[in-house]
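User: I'll paste a sequence; please echo it back and then give the predicted structure.

Assistant: Echoing your sequence first, then the prediction.
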Amino acid sequence: MKTCNKCGVEKPYTEFFKDKSRSDGFQTKCKQCDKISIKAYFEKNPDYNKQRGQNNKKYFQEKAKQRHQSKKLSYWIVYMLPNCIPSPYTKPYVGKTNNPSYRMTHHKYKGRDTTGWIELHRFDTDAEALAKEAEYHALGYAGKCEKIGPCRNTGRSKHK
């Protein structure tokens, strides 16, 4: 049994949250009093969660950016997603990247099947990879065209 410092009632240890920094391993306030004080704090400081959320969003965006930057390759690859055959196309998706980890995550987010992706070619520059990717698109492979002029897949000029 332990006495709550807030309400003064003696309660069993199960009525207290754990706290490793305390000698007995439990907080000084009971769960009920702790919840009341937390609720009162947030009512008194309504912008706290909003501010905290904005700070966390910026923090996690920066961490993700750093994580993706650290996985960038010193070369460019042209890759194929053999299991991703969009309905209007007869051939699989072909693309280029210097950050396969980020790119495959993006494809998954778009609903594309990235299992078994294949590295077709490796290039030192983006321009070389872009030229090879355009060759595949000219052969009827699906993908995002970044070349100047009409796209074989959509008929539009350079789309984003």
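Residues 19 and 26 are 5 Å apart (CA to CA). The first helix runs from residue 31 to 44.
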